[in-house]
Each structure stands twice: as structure tokens, then as C-alpha cells.
Design goal:
Length: 239
Amino acid sequence: MPPTRLPELIYVVEDEMAIARIIGDTLEKFGYRHEVFRTAEALFHGLRHRAPDLVILDLGLPDMDGMTVLQQMRGKHSCGLLIVTGRSDTHDRVMGLELGADDYVVKPFEPRELIARVRSILRRYPGQVVLPADPAQRVAEFAGWRFAPGSNTLTSPSGQQDTLSTAEAQLLSVLLAHPNHILTREQLLGGRDVSALDRSIDLRVSRLRRRLEEDPQHAKLIKTVYGAGYLLAATVSWS
């Protein structure tokens, strides 16, 4: 028999215990494991011991601003990340997405909405990336750039190395797998249905362009095909 797969582990970072209980009860009801952390310090301690599949992060923590927590997480950890916030300012939500969050939900929220967003994010994080058995398939070269999906390392034509966030690396991997093909926003998000108001993929493309393009406003490598999607205009080889 195949090995039994444990339910996804979700870290809930929320200092208001009443809200933490609502989130925890909702996750348990739908079959997810979870742990609750009341501070950023407790979260980082937990991350050093065990990696979750998803972190649900409240921006209003008592010991550290949520945006700072988000930045530090995205530099070191590759799990999904859902912002839960009472901040109604659109700027905060957009900044969170720009810094690497996968989605957000605003308090007060319906439990069904929370679960829908949790499921959507988890579909984009199928677990650790398994490198191809063939070593010739481990590094992609395109337009002078090199990308190693096993480590999310991007090397510029001048030799400068940078580590992409998981969201950026997944997007680039899909583009590299289908060069010179128009990919819809749904395809770039792993088949997830997106509404006309869902701009998360556009924000990810924008972040990638800032890394890859000399002039992100007039992109030549990741092109917008209006009304259709995006296209990587490059020849890709694997070495």
C-alpha cells in the first residue's frame, strides 16, 4: 500500500485568542493540522523546528510588524502564506502581496472564505520540489540567465546570484517549461480559477520582471499578450 499522507500542517500566527480559536476550529473541521503562535518570536522558533505547509499570518502582532515578519519569512522559508488582517487599507494588502504573500483575507471573515483561500494556496504548494533524475534537467539557461529550480537560485548574465521566493520560482518554472507559448493566468497559477479581480499573478509577474528586465515597464522577456496571458520570449536549454 502507498504511504499515508499526513494532513497539511498550518501555522496560525494570531495574538487574539478568540480569533485564533475560530481559525483553529475551522481548520480542524476541514481536516487540517494546526499550531497557534501568539508572537513573531514564537513563530520563528516553531519554523526552526518544523516547516509547515502554510502560515496564516496576522499583520497586527504585538512584538513585530507583520510586514517585517513576511519579509523575513519569504527570505528563508518556502511555505504558503495567507495574510489575515483587520487593516482595510488597500495599500497594506497590495504591499503584502508584493512582499510575497499568496493571498489575504480581511477580518471579519466567513470560515468558508478562509478555507477556500487555504485550499487555493495549498494547491500551489504541492510539497518539496523533486529534482529530475536526469542531472541534465537541473539548470535552465535562457537569455543569458541561469535558473536552478532545486535551490530557487537565479544567476544573472553578469554572474550575480539571487534567491527567488517560492512564488516567483514556481512562476518562472512554469514559464521556462513552456517558452514562447501564451499561458493564461489560470495556467500560471496551476490551473486555479481566477476572477477578474484577482491580480496575484500580475503582481508575481511584476516582481519577476523587476529581476529580469532592463526596463520592466517595456518588458521584452516576459511579454503581456493582452486578453490572453503572458509569454516567455526566449529559447530555453537545460544543462
